[in-house]
Write a structure and sequence with these properties.
mainly alpha
């Protein structure tokens, strides 16, 4: 009788080191490790103090105004649009958007991230998602609370401006993340844009309002709010289209610029 030789089935391939470490697939939109590091960078440095200080100031002012003037719809509208939407939201956007990637490029630590087998589009998308989440948390939620403090959501002003703040956060995060990739002076450029264009020119010069993220967000608030207190110079369809176009274009351009960054060994 001849002996038969048993054949073993082939062993399945070992998981790659990157997959074993919990890395996302190459085509994933969000990379957990990059997201965790970005989140820690935003909330673990001195910029976290500013992130907490600005919404806290908004709530303190809202409480003081309510105590002095009582519940008044016009006063609530003026504070929510004039301070929350035109001041707090773009400033927090500057801090979160530029802070998501700018410091890594400035100190050169970005090379360690670029050396990993992660698509640079995934890096930008992950950092943008984290920046949006942080910005919404520190802008939209305090705006909603401030609206309830001011007039108890009369004429739906609290809800309207909270939604407007959340929408504006998405566009601002994309714009300021792009600035963090293309210039080492992203914070300065971002502050000039936020304070001068969005805070002054976008509110005063009629033609410039069409190109203001704040006015696009106000168009959304106008749709949600009751009464005629909230008014925008931009129609709702135009505002939605411009918000989508600007956010998409800024994200695409940031991805393209990041791909031009070379690390040692690639050159």
């Amino acid at each position: 009788m001849s002996a038969t030789t048993a054949t073993r089935p082939p062993r399945p391939p070992e998981p790659s080191a990157s997959r074993a470490a919990g890395a996302a697939p190459a085509a994933a939109l969000f990379h957990r490790t990059v997201g965790r590091l970005t989140y820690r960078a935003l909330l673990g440095r001195r910029r976290a103090l500013l992130l907490f200080a600005l919404p806290a100031l908004l709530l303190v002012i809202a409480g003081a105004v309510r105590g002095l003037t009582g519940a008044d719809d016009a006063t609530a509208h003026d504070l929510l649009q004039g301070f929350a939407l035109s001041g707090v939201v773009p400033l927090v956007g500057v801090i979160a958007g530029t802070g998501a990637i700018g410091p890594e490029i400035d100190d050169g630590s970005i090379v360690y991230l670029l050396a990993k087998p992660i698509r640079r589009g995934t890096i930008i998308a992950t950092k943008l998602i984290v920046a949006i989440g942080v910005t919404v948390a520190f802008c939209a939620i305090p705006t909603l609370l401030a609206g309830y403090v001011l007039n108890g959501n009369g004429q739906r002003l609290a809800s309207a401006y909270a939604l407007a703040a959340a929408v504006a956060c998405v566009a601002y995060a994309a714009i300021f993340l792009m600035l963090g990739v293309i210039t080492r002076h992203a914070v300065v450029v971002g502050l000039v844009y936020a304070l001068l264009w969005e805070g002054v020119i976008g509110n005063v010069v009629p033609g410039a309002r069409t190109l203001s993220v704040q006015q696009w967000a106000v168009a959304i608030a106008q749709k949600v709010a009751k009464g005629d207190l909230v008014a925008s110079d931009v129609s709702l369809p135009t505002a939605v289209v411009l918000l989508v176009v600007v956010t998409t274009a800024a994200t695409w351009f940031a991805t393209r610029k990041l791909r031009t960054l070379k690390i040692a060994g690639e050159e």
